[in-house]
Structures are given as structure tokens and as C-alpha cells.
């Protein structure tokens, strides 16, 4: 058990020597810039507008399918 504890202590670097990878810095900066540039109301509004458009499209397709089957059944 002592060997494992000694090895884990040897692997730890002081906080000053640790470097943040460049990818993490870019990801953090891009997330911060997006949150600063877009307000939450705009984002939520865009999501609801897209959802409403898709919902209307689905309703129209379902109504057309029902009309198609009704017309087809009426001919026989």
C-alpha cells in the first residue's frame, strides 16, 4: 500500500506546472462568447419557432394522408 501512495504522490505536479490544453481554452472562449452574444430569450424563441414550423408541417402531412385515404375509399 505504501508503494502505491508514494507513486501517486510522485506523479502529481505542482499547480504552477500544469498547463491547460489549447483545445480547452478555445472551447471555453467560444462558449463564453456565444453566451455573451445571444440572449436566452432569442435562443428559446428560435427553438420554439423551429418547433412550431415542424409541428405545422407534420399536421399538414397527416391531414393530406387522411384526405388521400378518404378519397381512395370513396372511389370503391
Question: How does this model look, in words?
Answer:
- The chain is elongated, with a radius of gyration of 29 Å.
- 82% of the residues lie in helices and 0% in strands.
- It has helices at 2-11, 22-37, 40-75.
- The protein is mainly alpha-helical.
The gist of it:
The chain is mainly α and 76 residues long. It has 3 helices and no strands.
State the low-pLDDT regions, or none. Answer: none
In total, the number of strands is: 0
Strand content is under 5%
Query: Helix- and strand-based class?
Result: mainly alpha
For this entry, give a set of tags.
single chain; 76 residues; mainly alpha; 0% strand
Give the SSE map:
Layout: H1 2-11, H2 22-37, H3 40-75
